[in-house]
Amino acid sequence: MQKWIQRLANLSAIGMFLILAMGALVTKADAGRGCGDEWPLCHGKFVPAHTISSFIEYSHRLVVGIVTLILIATFYLVFRYVKRTDAKVFITATVIMTLVQAVMGAMAVVWPQSSLVLALHFGLSLLAFAFSLLLALVFTPWGQFTRHTSIRTSFKVLVWFTTIYSYVVVYLGAFVRHTVSSGGCSGWPLCNGEVIPELSGATGIVFTHRIAALLLFICILFLFIQARRHYDSSDKLWFGSKWALILVSTQVITGAIVTWAMGNEVAYLLTGMLHAINVACMFGFLCYLCVLTLYDRKA
């Protein structure tokens, strides 16, 4: 039974990753209205006409439905056969976040919502993926969160601050997409050829996101330096911090490429999706570090 639970946990994490990626595609391809104002039907049909926008939107809905069924099965088996409390917490949080984002997605279709609310939809998907990833890790050697050495209090604070702040930066990025503000800054690293542009409208939104992303890079770089200074290279804290730094560096690069790709629809779409997928992986590693701090050995 443990093997089945592990397989379902892995499928849940993969499924949540697909939901997040497909949600980014829906936004980038402007396919959110691909099924009109109807939910769960698409233009009054279970199988809609084969237009690109309706296919993208309906495929996203279909995947959400399938993954939800997998999550329900995983939820039952975890509570029935797994004794670890953390596994129960992770699957419960995944199910809750998935259901909330599904309801929000349906509401966004039937009743158009503000960009502030729509941006939160991606944030919930990110949390659902992070919790599903942690659940999958429970059944691997990396899921043995207990430690034999204590963690410095300052490092714990840095980990949690960086993770929470990264969520804010991700939300700003989603807000940029939903307000269609990406074109507010042409060029990179300069914005419209200026170090500090006029901070109004779309330009102000994009520039704020860029500054926030720069500060996030500095936070994760400092986090890695602290992990390398105080923990062995075989320590999970060092490993997680290293990959968080690698991924935030990649995130900066993909963000620049997204800007350079404007004007080329296909390249812009692909790099935009890569940008969203990369940030999910980075956030997953930061959440993993947060969990490690919760299992610190008591002095």
TrEMBL record:
Q: In which pathway does it act?
A: Porphyrin-containing compound metabolism
Cite a single GO BP annotation: heme A biosynthetic process
Instruction: Give the membrane topology, semicolon-separated if more than one.
Output: Multi-pass membrane protein
Statement: the UniProt record of this protein carries the keyword Protease: no
Per UniProt, subcellular location reads as:
Membrane
Q: What is its main location?
A: membrane
Gene Ontology annotations for the cellular component aspect, listed alphabetically: membrane
Q: What is this protein called?
A: Cytochrome Caa3 oxidase
- GO MF assignments: metal ion binding; oxidoreductase activity
Report the domain of life of the source organism.
Bacteria
Membrane-traversing stretches: 62-82, 89-111, 117-143, 155-174, 207-225, 237-261, 273-295
Q: Which UniProt keywords apply?
A: Cell membrane, Disulfide bond, Heme biosynthesis, Iron, Membrane, Metal-binding, Oxidoreductase, Transmembrane, Transmembrane helix
Keyword check for Coiled coil, yes or no.
no
